[in-house]
Amino acid sequence: MSQPLQPYRLFLQHFAPLAFMITLLAGGFWLVEQHGHQNLLDGTGIDLNPHQVRQLLDKFNTHQVETIGVVTIIALLAAALIAWYTAKNRLRQLLIEQENREQLRQIELLLDSTLEGIYAVDCAGNCIMANRSCAQLLGYDGPHNLLGRQMHELIHHTRSDGSPYPLDECKVHTIVGTGAAVTTLHEIFWRKDGSSLPVAYTAHPIKDGDQIIGVVCAFMDLSEQKQAEAQMAQLEDQLRQAQKMEAIGQLASGVSHDFNNILQVISGNAQLLQLVGDHDPAALQHRLGEIVKAVERGVNLTRAMLAFARRQAIALRPVELNDLLRESVPLARNLLVKTQRLELQLHPEALTVTADATLLQQVLFNLLTNARDAMPEDGTVTVGTAWSDQAPEQAVGGEQLPAGPFALLWVQDTGQGISVEIRDKIFEPFFSTKGVGKGTGLGLAMIYGTIKQHHGCIHIESEPGQGCRVSIYLPCIEQQRTAS
Amino acid sequence: MARILLIDDDPQVRSVLEGFLHHDGHQVICAANGREATRLLEQQRVDLVLTDIVMPEQDGFEVIINLTAQVDRPPIIAISGGSSRLSQQMLLSMASKMRIERVLAKPISYQQLSAAVSEVLAAALAATPPHTQ
Question: Is the model's pTM score more than 0.80?
Fold first, then answer.
C-alpha cells in the first residue's frame, strides 16, 4: 500500500531545490546588479553634483526593478517547469501503485478461491501468508490470525499417533535446508479447537534467486475422503457378509437336498425291514446294504463340505510342474477305468510355479475324475503342461490376475463335452451333471478355490460331443531349458 | 392294485420308494429322469405318477408341465428334498401351484406315502365317470 502524501516531503523533494535555485539566481543577479551599478558609477566623473547623484540613483532603481523583474520571471518559469515535471512523475507513480494494488487484489482473490489451504512461512517457520481456506480449514476466523505465528507449533506439533513432532523432523521445515519439495499423502494437521484434520500436502521452497527465503505449503482436507473410504469399507464388509451368508445359504440348501435323500434311503430301508421282517434273508441283506451305502454317502458328503468350507492352510514353495505330473501319473492311472487310456504331454522346458504341491495334485485328480466320468469306457485322457505369456480373456477367476507369463497344467478328455449353458455353472457348489453317487458337485468348486489361492485362473475349451480341455493357468516364476 | 410311474434320479431312493409301493401291492415302473419318464408314458398308461423334482436332464417341473397339458392325465404326486438353489419348501410350494394332487417332503415315511397314494387314487377313481372305470 502507498504511503500518504506528506507536504514537508513534497517540499523537500521538489521545492527546496527550487528555492535554492532561486536564491542562487537572486544572488547572482544582485552581484550582476552591483557590478552594473559600479559600471554606472564608473561611467560618471569623479565629482558628482546633486543632480547627477539623483540621476544616478534613478538609474540604480530602474536597474534594480529590471533585475528583480527578470529574476522573478525566470524563477516563475523554473517553478512551473519543475512543478509540471513533478506532477507528471507523481501521476505515473500513482498509476503504477494502483496497478500493483489491483494485481495484488487479483492474486488474493485467486488464492481465496481455492478449496486447498495455502500458507507460506519464512525460514524460521513464521507465517507470512495464508489464504482464506487455510484459515477456515484450521478453524481460524481469518488469515490475519495466522500471520506471524509459528506454523509448526500451531498446526503440525503432534503426529497422528499422539507422539510429539519436533520442528527439526518436520518435512515442511526441512525444505529450508534441503530445498527439495515434499509431498505427503496422509498427514495430520491440528485445528484451533484441538481436533485433528487429515490432510494431504505438498510443500515447495520459496526462492529469491538462489536463496531460499521460505516455504509455501498447499494442503487438502481429506476428511470427506476418509469418511467415504470408511463407508466403502463398511459396504464392502456388508457385501462380504451377504456373500458369505448367500454361500452359507447355498451350502445349506445343497446339503439339505443330498442329506434328505440319504435320510430317505436310511429311514426307508429301515422301515421296509420293519414291514418285511426277516422272512427274506436276501432282501434283508439288500436293505441293510443300502443303509450302509447311504451312511457312506453321508460321510463323504460331510468330508467334502468340510474340505470346501475349511480355509486350507496352503504351503507354498517352488514346484516344477513336469516333475509333479511325472510323480502323479502312476497314481492317477488308478482313477480311470481300466479300458481308458492316460497319456502325458510335457512342455520341453521346466516350468516352475509357487504352489502347494499337494493341493495341485488334488486339483489334477479331481480333473481326471471328471474326465473319467465324462468319457466312454474306451476314452483317452491326456495330461500335460504348457507355457503362455498371458492368460486367456474368458478365464474363470481371471479377475485381478498378475501379469504373465503363466505355466499351464491341462487335462483333455474325449468325453461328451460341456455345453455353453452348463459351462457357466459347473464351478457352482453342488452343481453336477453326474448321477447320484458319482460325486458331490463340489469338485470343481474346490478346484476354483484352490486356483484362486494360487493367484491363477481356469480356462475351459469344450463343445458338446467333442471332449473337454481344462487348463489351469499359474504364474510362472521360472522357465528354463532342462538338460537334454 | 395300481400301476405307478416312479421318477427319481437317485437309485437308492427309487429302491426304497419302490419297496414301499410294492408292499402295498402296486406295480411300479421306474424312470431316472423326466426324459425317460416321458418315453415310458408314451408307451403305456399309468394310474399315478410319483415324481422327484430336482433331477438332471429333465426335472420334475417339466414332467408336470407336460402331463398337466394333457386332458386325460394321471394324478401326480411330487416329492422333493430341496436343491442347492431353492429350499425344499419353495420347490414344493411351486409344485403345488401347478395344480397337482399332492406334494411330499423327503424323507417320506412308508405311512405317509401309503396314505397319500391311497387318497389320490381314491379321489381319481371317484372323479372318473362310471362307464370309463
Answer: no
In angstroms, the CA A34 to CA A36 distance is 5
Q: Where are the beta strands (DSSP E) in A178-280?
A: 182-190, 196-208, 211-221
Helix (H) or strand (E) holding A385: strand A380-388
Q: What contacts A295, CB < 8 A, 6 or more positions away?
A: A262, A266
A373 close contact with B: CB closer than 8 A: no
The interface pTM score, or ipTM, of the predicted complex is 0.86
Q: Using the beta-carbon criterion (under 8 Å), do A293 and B12 form an inter-chain contact?
A: yes
In terms of CATH architecture, what is A229-309? Orthogonal Bundle (1.10)
Pick from A476, A478, A458: nearest CA to A418: A458
- A257: nearest CB among B84, B109, B110: B84
Interface of B with A (CB under 8 A): 9-13, 15-17, 19-20, 23, 32, 54, 56, 81-88, 105-110
3-class DSSP state for residue A458?
A: strand
The CATH code belonging to domain A317-481 is 3.30.565.10
Residue-range domains of chain B with CATH: 3-132 (3.40.50.2300)
User: What per-residue confidence (pLDDT) applies to A2?
Assistant: 44
pLDDT single digits (tens) A352-363: 999 988 888 888
